[in-house]
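Thread: "does anyone have the structure for this chain?"

Original post by V.I.:
We have the sequence but no experimental structure in hand. Need at least a predicted one for the grant figures.
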Amino acid sequence: MSATLPITGTLAVFAGLLLLFLAWRRKAPRTGMWRLALPASWGLLGAGMLAWSLSTHADQGLALGVVVVMMLACGLVAWQGLRQVGQPVKVQTVREIASDSLALGAGYWGRVVVRLAGSVVVVPGLGFAVGGLWYTYGPGHEADRLMGMAMASLIFAAAGWVIQLASRRPWRACLGLALVTVVAAGLAFLPRVL
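Reply from O.Q.:
Generated one for you, tokens below.
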């Protein structure tokens, strides 16, 4: 096993996590290049996982890559927590915490229904479709493809739930995830149809 791919994967994962952290901590609105911060960070995480899975067998490399992601994320969380030791805790009232998106105004129940439908129907479908895509086109023998299918399903379902539930515009998120689901399912079943 060459050390180039694991080192590259680790650096890509670290850069992706750092970019996620910086985008999360940024107080200013996301304009200009900061609009690309979230997609770029998730792309770097995916590239790091790909580099780790190509370094050895797909399942072993992917498992090692996930361990690296968890260790680096725990390091960032610990660093953030240790930075705040000894500082006074800011107490906020419920009125200060509540945002306009949680207000019981026009469209509130529509957003709730879309978030529920997206979380129960669209996101699990996304996981299955991406898993089928990995099984159809993934590298390795059948056992490797099954393992990759399970990992891809879980990763994409978790990412889909984060996107669906954290979105301020759940209609757009649900329709975008549904479009990705349909395209992935179509590509996964394309060889069986032809």
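V.I.: this helps a lot. The chain has a mean pLDDT of 82.
O.Q.: and Residues 107-187 form one domain.
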